[in-house]
Every structure is written in C-alpha cells, then in structure tokens.
Amino acid sequence: MSKSLYPPVAKLNQAGDCRKIRRIIAEDPDWSLALVPLLSNLCLQNIVRNFEEKPIIEELLPGHKDYVLERLSPALPLHVTANLISDEGYWKRCCSQRWDLCDVSQYGHSWKRMFFERHLENIIELFIPDVTDPKTVLDMVPLCKNYVKRLDISQLLPPIKEPQKAEEEDGSDLASDSGSEGPSMDHFDFGILLNKLTNLEELHLVYRVRHCGMNFEWNLFEFTSRDCESLAKALKSCKTLKLLRLHQSKVEDDKCRLLVKYLLDHPSLRELDLSHNLIGDRGARAIGKLLNRSQLETLNIYDNNIRGPGAQAIAHALSKNSTLLSLNLRLNRLGDEGGQAVGQALLNNSTLLHLHLGANEMSEPAAIVLSKVLVQNNTLKSINLSCNRLGMDGGKALEEGMSHNTTVTECDIRLTEVGQESGSCISQAVRNNQSRARKKQAQESKAK
Question: pTM to 2 decimals?
Fold first, then answer.
C-alpha cells in the first residue's frame, strides 16, 4: 500500500510548520452560489443597455418583457419608443418625471395619451414664428398622431420684435426705404398640423402670452386676420374635430364671419365655444347661419357684444334647428328684443334642453314671453335668467308658467327682483319636477 504524497494536516500542525498549509480565502465572505445571476437576466440587462441602438421588446416572453420595461429609461428618444412601447407603466414614469401634476383621468386614463398631448402642446406653445423650425412640429406627427385626441393651447408666441421695427414705429425715413419684409406668420400656423392629426377631436386655443410680466404689450394678445384665415382653413381640413374653443382672443365680427365661412357643413363639429370675445350682431348673424348648416349640439357665445338684432338672427335659426341641445348667451346685451326673440323660437323648437340668458338687460316683456315657453315647451330642462331686472310682474308671469310646467328641473332667477313670493313658488315647482324626474328615472332603471 503506497503512502500518501501529502502528510496529514494533523501531523503538520503537530510539527508546527504552518507555512506548508494550503488555504483558500474567499474574496467576498458573503458570496454564495445562489447569487450567481441567471444567464437570461444577463441577456435582458444587455437588451436594456442597448435598447436605443437595437430595440427588442415584442419578441420577448411576457415575463421578460415586463423585466425590460421596468428598467427602460424614460429619457429614451421618442422615435424609438413612441410606436413601439404601449405599456402604461412606462409612460406613467415618463409623465411623472417630466410634470409634477399628472391627472390621468383628464386623458381617458391613458398615460401615453397624456404624454404625447402635453408634449405636443409644449412644442406649440414655445413655437416662435421665423425662429423655431416647423420641422420640430412636423417630426412629431408620425410619433403622436395615433394618440393625440385633444390639444389645449394656453399661449401662442408672436414673432420676435427686431430693433429695426422700433425705428419704423418712430417714423424713421430710413426704415421705409429698407424694403424689409415682416414675419411670414403672426403666430403658429395650424395649417401645417391639424389635417395630419387624424384622431384630433378637441381644440382649445387662446391667443395670448402667459407670464409676460413687465414686457406687456397689447400685440402679445392679438389674434390677427392672417391668424384667423390660416386657422379657419386648418379647421376645415380637420375632419375629425368635434369641439372648438377659441376664447379670450378678441374675436370680433369679421373674424367670426371668416371662421364660420370655413366651418359651414363641417362633418363632425358638435360643440363651438367663442366665449369672452368681441362678437357683435354681424358675427351673431353668421353664427345663426352656422346653426342652419351644421350638426352643433352645444353653442357657447357668452360674454360678447351681441344685442337684439344678433339675438334675433340666432333665434330665427333656433326655431328651425333640430340638433342644438345647449345654448349659452349670458353676459351679452340682448335686451327685451333679443329675449323675446329667443322665447318665440322656443315655442317652435323641440330639441333644446339648456338655455342660459343671464345678465342680458332683460325685463318684464322678455319674462312674459318666456313664461309662455314654460307652458308650451315640453323639452327644456334648465333655464337661467339670473341678473336680469324681470320685476314683480315678470316674476308673476314666470310663476304662472312654472305652475303648468313638468320638465324644467333647474330655474335660476337670482338677482331678478321677482319678489320673494314668486321666487318661492317657482322654486317649489322646480322641486316638484325634480322629484317627478327621479321617480321616472327609477322606473326606467327597473324596467331595464
């Protein structure tokens, strides 16, 4: 039996020669075989690191796809991620990183829609005519057109005012001889964009500059004729648009007529809001024409300069209209002439559900006609007459009308001087109608 080439450790210890002991010292005392990463994870980490150069996502197994999506950077270029990644968790991280306030309920509970709508809005709001390259907007179209349904533009920047322009304003003769041309556009031209956004349904615009501070000038709040024409043509080309809101932009009669010209027979427009502008009777006549040649369901033109003749034009269209459900004319100057005209129209109209005539300088004659509406019209559900001087007699007339009405569940007569007794009777009639409506709704839900 051959002897071992290596002496037993015990004998070495007894001999006291420790230099010949073979030792293994681990570099990491916490090392364990269980900590060795899986090869699949190493591959997935490599995909994450190189995603910009070689994006791989759809070919992965569901579990592996989740692993990659959780680790992708929100800073990846949009041309890589826009039409490739649909995971809401990823787009939520993109939104949260960029904006402090993120209410996804305002975007159909879609984080991806929120990101692209707000991203495109930011580009447009910071667009400077003849400075910003339109390509920055157009390059976004293929990436966002499938996700943008609404644009809420809260400012539009004018061209940069050059020093030379200041000399022209001072009457410099040299400036008149220079032959320099003005900017190619006054604000962002929506004509290059709207017809390409094939899912756009809502457009909210305000021609103003936010936070201008000490640099305030009136031309920062100007919706020019050139702006109006380019916008009107763009709206006509946007066949999917359902809601247009253009407010606080000094839209007067001529601009209103131009907008209406291009909105006539629009195939999808259902709501128009031109509130807080300068529209007068001529613009109101154009709006009346639009009512006859559109499928509008909601019309908001409150806080303008519409008087009796303009209200008569709208009322004439309303008497023949069969689509409009809500009309808001508050804070105009209809007077009794306009109020009576609208009331007479409602004797023939059988579709309008909501009417707002608050603060329109109306008095007893208008109240008398509207009381007849309450008796004969079986469609109207809410009417607002607040801040008009209807008087005691006007209140008696409305009280008599409401005593025969069964459909109006909201009737606002605050600050109308109708008297406490009439006001109380009208309120009681409204409560009776509300109770009747609740019972009817309960019966219908049971039948279903």
Answer: 0.86
